[in-house]
């Protein structure tokens, strides 16, 4: 197996495992109508390198499988994260790796998770639709847009870190 394939498999597996582990460590706030899924910060790795989409999607699917909604969340929750990742990658590809693009890309998880998870919570738990969308979006905004952008804006300036995590 070539170094590129090995590097890709190892980094994808590591990011998937990290997503699952962080979700489980913060399990009480990772699921539900009011959630602050700390592991969602990791979706910003796709801003740095688009190849992280697979590991993040798999990590999300595994974390959702073991959550309270199980298979329903695997389908809908993982789809929300996948769409958010595609949004992040599109912004990064079109506007580059700068702070303004990072900030703009952080709205993908807010929008997609807010809408899709809000609908999911309404259908599965009969929770009110609009408040569910707002609560989930607000949690994503705090975690990804405020905390995640702050952390990743610092990481973007660390050339050594970028060299280590980027796929060659």
Detailed description of the structure:
The chain has 168 residues and is mainly alpha-helical. The chain has a single domain, classed as Arp2/3 complex 21 kDa subunit ARPC3, CATH 1.10.1760. The protein is 77% helix and 0% strand. The chain is built from 9 helices and no strands. The protein is globular, with a radius of gyration of 15 Å. The mean pLDDT is 96.
What are its keywords?
single chain; 168 residues; mainly alpha; Arp2/3 complex 21 kDa subunit ARPC3; 77% helix
CATH architecture: Orthogonal Bundle
CATH class: Mainly Alpha
- Taking pLDDT < 50 over at least 5 consecutive residues as the criterion, the unreliable ranges are none
The largest β sheet comes out as:
none
Strand segment tally: 0
**What's the structural domain tally?**
1
- What is the first-to-last residue Cα distance? 15 Å
Mean pLDDT: 96
- Categorize the overall geometry: globular
- If you consult CATH, what is the topology? Arp2/3 complex 21 kDa subunit ARPC3
Number of helices: 9
């Amino acid at each position: 197996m070539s170094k590129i394939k090995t590097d890709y498999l190892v980094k994808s597996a590591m990011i998937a495992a990290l997503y699952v582990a962080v979700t489980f460590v913060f399990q009480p706030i990772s699921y539900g109508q009011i959630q602050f899924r700390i592991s969602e910060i990791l979706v910003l790795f796709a801003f740095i390198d688009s190849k992280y989409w697979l590991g993040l999607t798999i990590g999300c699917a595994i974390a959702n499988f073991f959550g309270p909604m199980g298979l329903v969340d695997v389908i809908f929750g993982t789809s929300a994260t996948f769409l958010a990742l595609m949004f992040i990658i599109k912004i990064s590809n079109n506007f580059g790796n700068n702070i303004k693009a990072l900030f703009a890309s952080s709205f993908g998880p807010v929008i997609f998770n807010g809408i899709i998870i809000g609908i999911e919570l309404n259908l599965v738990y009969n929770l009110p639709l609009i408040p569910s969308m707002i609560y989930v979006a607000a949690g994503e905004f705090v975690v990804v847009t405020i905390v995640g952008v702050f952390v990743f804006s610092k990481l973007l300036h660390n050339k050594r870190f970028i060299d280590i995590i980027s796929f060659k």
